[in-house]
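Retro notes, item 3 of 5
We never archived the inputs for the nicotinamide-adenine-dinucleotide complex last cycle. Fixing that now. Sequence and ligand:
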Amino acid sequence: MDIYRHPVFDMACQQFDLVADRLQMSTADRVLLKAPKRALTVAVPVRMDDGSTQVYSGYRVQHHLTLGPTKGGVRYHPDVTLGEVAALAMWMSWKCALTGLPYGGAKGGVAVDPRKLSHHELERLTRRYTQELVGFIGPQLDIPAPDLGTNEQTMAWMMDTFSVHAGHSVPGVVTGKPVGIGGSLGRREATGRGVAYLAGRAMDTLNLTASGATAVIQGYGNVGAVAAQSLVRQGLRIIAVSDANGGVYNPRGLDMRQLDAWVAEHRTVAGFPEAEPIGGEVMLLLPCDVLVPAALERQITGANAGKLRCRIVAEGANGPTTPEADAILNERGDVVVIPDILCNAGGVVVSYFEWVQDLQSFFWTEGEVMDRLFRILENSFGQTLALSRKENIPLRLAAMTLGIQRVWEAKKIRGLFP
Ligand code: NAD
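Structure as it came back at the time:
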């Protein structure tokens, strides 16, 4: 698995090995479960607006095919590598199994800073990347969705490009599309609403009341902004938020309506006048009830975990907490970490609903979507909490154990071919 060497892939493997040790898994089974099934690396040439040509590196990794087609987001970020994508695909596998979805994990991405490309350049990049994936993705094969740096528009271009090749509309090839072309009501909000719902459930277990409680949000994109709005509806005050351009802090609570108006105009939280600027690292250490990392991996590390002053870490991002940080937080015992594969699973759950609706050409109301989403999240949270209490293990170890065990069992039942 040397081709995947990367700190984030190493981190996903370390987390896996903790579970495998507990389950006394053989070396052969470890390799079988960990090794990504397929990986594709593509060169994506794009004609830029000035007439020049840039070539970007694109990736797609499908982690396992045991339970159905694979599912996972597409990331546009300058740091995207094959190893990072493989780690994210592995986490998707455990997430789908934990929530009982009939999928293996996948992930894709292009090493590009989407903020530096024009709308037309982004469209050409997305269409060419999709073109390179034709044959590798499809409703019964692998179904992409939005992730960091991509959105509904990206999915619309992917769906359109794939459909042109097929000769007919194939809405089920991607999820997270606009509702007008086969997207699901509630998909855009699903991840953030799920994060807020589970933060609320974790507060219940600590007997914390939402009213007057405080939250800090790192990353104010799809996940972070919706989580913040949902937490406010639950009665919390958001005291600090950040994005790639900077952070803002107001100990009395940010006026989220004004902040959203500012972001709509300036495309960043930085400079919001009703608050003080705050650095990203300092912001993570603010005293608060709920800390929501909703940006990148490896933000809570061995260097800052001992200094966190929150009661709950609700992982909106994938992989925001390193194994070293986990060890410190477990030792401290005063911070509950709701692990990514549970906490941000709302997105893939509603993506699954979108795929089901597309395959049946029969669409649900937002109420039906949300009702089914919260039932699945409640069930997964309940199972994870029960295992954590029974075995006296952290929630991450419990959630990963449930996910990994299900994939392991399925592989054993299906057997090895030939
Ligand atoms: P997004 O692109 O909509 O937003 C990302 C936000 O993070 C932006 O505000 C960006 O400015 C900010 N950011 C980037 N670098 C930062 C930094 N160093 N410090 C602070 N903020 C920074 O992406 P998203 O879809 O909201 O995804 C965020 C995270 O959630 C990712 O880890 C992604 O894998 C995970 N996730 C997303 C979904 C989904 O449905 N979109 C589902 C599950 C998990």
